[in-house]
Amino acid sequence: MRIYNAQSKMRRTTKLDIANTRTDDAPLTEKRSVAVDFDGVCHDYKNPIEGRRMGKPIDGTKEALESIRKKGYQIIIFSVWGNQPKVIEDFMKYYELPYDSITNVKPNASYFIDDKAIRFLNWTQTLRDIQIREEQK
User: pTM for the whole thing?
Assistant: First the structure.
């Protein structure tokens, strides 16, 4: 497994990295961080650009990521594509979207932004929320 970050490019993962995605010498547990899902949050995967797997950035993505960065958070992009960081990096750079690292491992973050997430309050509510989403399909 590998973790990619904007500063150090690709490097081998250690057990510490799995627990704390790093972009410098300080583990993210010492810094505030926001984990942002790539598919459905950063780009519109439901409407890919012709001949590509990805769509354009979701409206407001650049401004939102810039706002998160200005508030002092590190931005961790996570995706099942995280094992292909060059693809995501190229997209982020092309659209000038700020980020600190890219991973396919659930990062240790202060907050998660994910289009498919269900907020856990308790199991009864969670099961209800799953049922509601299933009925909306």
Answer: 0.75
